[in-house]
Design a protein that fits this description.
Oligomer: single chain
Helix content: 10-25%
Low-confidence stretches: 1-13
Strand order of the largest sheet: 4-8-9-7-6-5
Shape: globular
Mean pLDDT: 90
Order of helices and strands: HEEHEEEEEEEH
Largest sheet: 6 strands, mixed
Number of strands: 9
Strand content: 35-45%
Structural class: alpha+beta
């Protein structure tokens, strides 16, 4: 148990976390998101981040169609989405706001990840943008 949080909390955590780890941004998925999204944790260099924005209505900005994972519009979208310019990865839960991260290199050109219930998408976007050395973009939707 670290900081009063047991292993059960990590196993049952409701949404992915965006973690700044040294020179990387890690999309740390919960075990359920890994199963349903057919993907493991994703790591991207902070130097490849082009823009970061809070997205109060992320369902409106999804690009393309589901390639792998699940998509129940309005409830959950987990996994890879394919569109004309490449691939995006999303981990969306219900009507929660999200953080949208656009990157210049790597398999995915965009990540859209819901914030935890009661979380502040603008604060998360600002934290990631500061770590990447860029200014946060205006809200997306």
């Amino acid at each position: 148990m670290a900081n009063g949080v047991g292993a059960d909390h990590r196993m049952l955590g409701p949404v992915a976390e965006l973690i700044v780890d040294d020179k990387n941004l890690v999309v740390h998925l919960t075990p359920g998101e890994k199963v349903w999204g057919l993907h493991g944790d994703i790591r991207v260099r902070l130097s490849s981040i082009v823009s970061v924005a809070a997205d109060p209505k992320p369902w409106l900005g999804l690009r393309g169609w589901r390639m792998t994972g699940i998509s129940f519009p309005g409830h959950a979208a987990l996994g890879t989405r394919r569109h004309g310019d490449g691939y995006d990865f999303c981990a969306l839960h219900r009507d929660r706001p999200a953080v949208r991260v656009d990157v210049a290199t790597g398999r995915f050109s965009r990540f859209v990840v819901s914030v935890p219930e009661g979380g502040d998408a603008q604060a998360e976007a600002a934290r990631i943008a500061a770590a990447a050395g860029t200014a946060p973009s205006p809200p997306a939707s």
